[in-house]
Amino acid sequence: MPLKLKGVAAASGIAIAPLVHFHGDLAFIPTRTLEAQEVDGEQQRLDDAIAGASAAILDLSRDLAIDLTDHELKIYDAQLALLHDKTLLAELRRTIEGDRVNAEVAVQRVISRYESVFERMEDVAMRERAADLRDVGRQVLAVLLERERSSLVAEGHDYVFAADEFLPSDAGAVDRKHLKGIVTARGGKYSHGAILARSLGIPSVVAVDELMQKVRSGTRVIVDGESGAVICDPDDEDIERYRRLAAEQAEADRRVFEVRFLSARTPDGVSIKLMANVESTRDLGGVEEAIVDGIGLFRTEFAFMERRQFPTEDEQVELYHQAIEWANGKVVTFRTLDVGGDKPLPYFKTPDERNPVLGWRGLRISLDWPDLLYTQVRALLRASAGGRARILLPMVTHVDEIVRCRAVVEEIKADLAAAGEDFDDHIELGAMIEVPAIVGVLDEVLREVDFVSVGTNDLVQYLLAVDRDNPRIAQMYTPYHPGVLRTLARIAEVCNAHGKPVSICGEIAGDHYFSALLLGLGFRELSMAPVFLPRVKLMVRTFGLAECEALAREALTLGRSREIRALARDKAQAGWSSFLEGGPS
User: Where in the chain is the domain with CATH 3.20.20.60?
Assistant: First the structure.
């Protein structure tokens, strides 16, 4: 009887092939106590290993250049930056000298310490950096131990890669001609491994609990990169059904590619703004400016995290100006600093908190440290002279917080005007809707802001009291919950009644199964990771507004998450079928 496992869908597509286990080959690390006179030689071994690992990463990047965009290749630039990070190198050297241990042990200890810091963070993107650290450490150890990297192949046969995780360096060891799918026990949909899987067109499912224990190597499996399902020992009916779905998806992907430069307009003429979420100016290199209507969420905190001290006002102006210049007249929405217990800055000590996601973070820090807010707002206003910018306040809990920030903006405007500096006097100020209580006072909020953006990742988490990254309860996290849907309907209704723009910038904005529902609820601006934008655009161009509104009305009458999810997916599947049959485009 088939066994069905559930994970997180990381790269779309369907794969049918035998699953093959791959295990790390650096489990045994020799330990040696150094004599004083051996320390310098061991430091040199470390330097040589780092040089060797750097060369291997460069070779891999060149090998993949034909299949990846410049933006995706920056994954390997990030690994090189980690390898040559001065703080990391200094700690490796101190460990060799202070603990009198060989370089292999120093690498293992230091990487493990850094890794544990990242893995304790609440922010998913920051936690994913732990995987990059593991990968870099693994490559340095391979050079130190003079071991050639094992080839991740199945002797010329088609196969599904199964391992604890898929790391960027694995892309150079797999047999890409015969690799049909990837299934891992850990990892997230925004990890670098998942990004590479999507870019290489390899269906992928991650975070499959006890994968390596439950499924024997050699077992035939179906990998469903759309739903996150892995079906082991499928029967003939399953295989036939998924082969048919795979053919439909391939055709749909071709049509998605064709429509990406067309306008995001419903068949009955309603324009929808599709925006991109980015973490830094480096991300802009991988975004096709022609297919987006602007930047709906620029996470400014990542510029702070990448530095060893707070960026100066002039440094921030330059950063924000680059994004505004790239947008070429389209709007860029800059979220003010959103750090805290879950996204710490190495140079800004925050207190340990039992529940950092509910603690001192986001706007709460900026208002308690007004110099941070003042400097950032001043930099944003100065940069705004070069194009269209908006300021977005994260983690708003009280209307008074917005009033205080508005006063800061007006004060800085007066200072800049007095100094004869250029800025956009009509720059818009917005609030993120993440805290459920804010929905109840949204009328009051809208009197103080020019727009709002719904951060559904946190909003859903808070509404359901579910940590979506806790594997024990992650299955309870669903934006299809009736309570979530009704909350979103209320937000859209109030904002539209006030004539204030409202956008969705959480993960559901990029879920094309959710697109028709969001339009039907009243949202006209969606901001997402750029990789999801073409499929969402296809769905926007498929359904008329009346269809979307009828779908939303029906969904709001349902009382079970699974019923709402099935309704939305059936509607989306009808859209794919329409395109496959030569329907709207």
Answer: 270-536
522-579 pLDDT, tens digit each:
999 999 988 788 889 989 998 999 999 999 999 999 999 999 999 998 888 787 666 6
pLDDT, tens digit, for every residue of 60-71?
Answer: 999 888 877 766
Q: How many CB atoms lie within 10 A of CB 109?
A: 16
Which whole-number Å values give the CA distances from 100 to 47, 73, 114, 200, in the listed order?
Answer: 17, 37, 20, 43
N residues, the chain: 585
Q: Give 348's strand partners.
A: 345
Question: Is the predicted pLDDT of residue 199 greater than 90, yes or no?
Answer: no
Q: How do strand 8-11 and strand 204-206 relate by DSSP bridges? A: antiparallel
Cβ 49 vs Cβ 144: under 8 Å: yes
Helices and strands counted in the chain (H then E)? 21, 16
Pairing of strands 159-163, 179-184: parallel
Half-sphere CA count of 76, side-chain side, radius 13 A: 25
Query: Which CATH number applies to 270-536?
Result: 3.20.20.60
CATH 1.10.274.10 domain extents, the chain: 36-144
Q: Output the CA–CA distances (angstroms, integers) from residue 193 to 132, 150, 165, 188, 513, in the order listed.
A: 9, 18, 8, 9, 24
Q: How far is residue 505's CA from residue 236's CA, in Å, rounded to a whole number?
A: 41
CATH fit for domain 36-144, picks 1.10.274.10, 3.30.70.1120, 2.60.120.280, 1.25.40.10:
1.10.274.10
Would you name the residues annotated as active-site residues? 192, 505
Domain 3-24+150-237 has CATH 3.50.30.10: yes
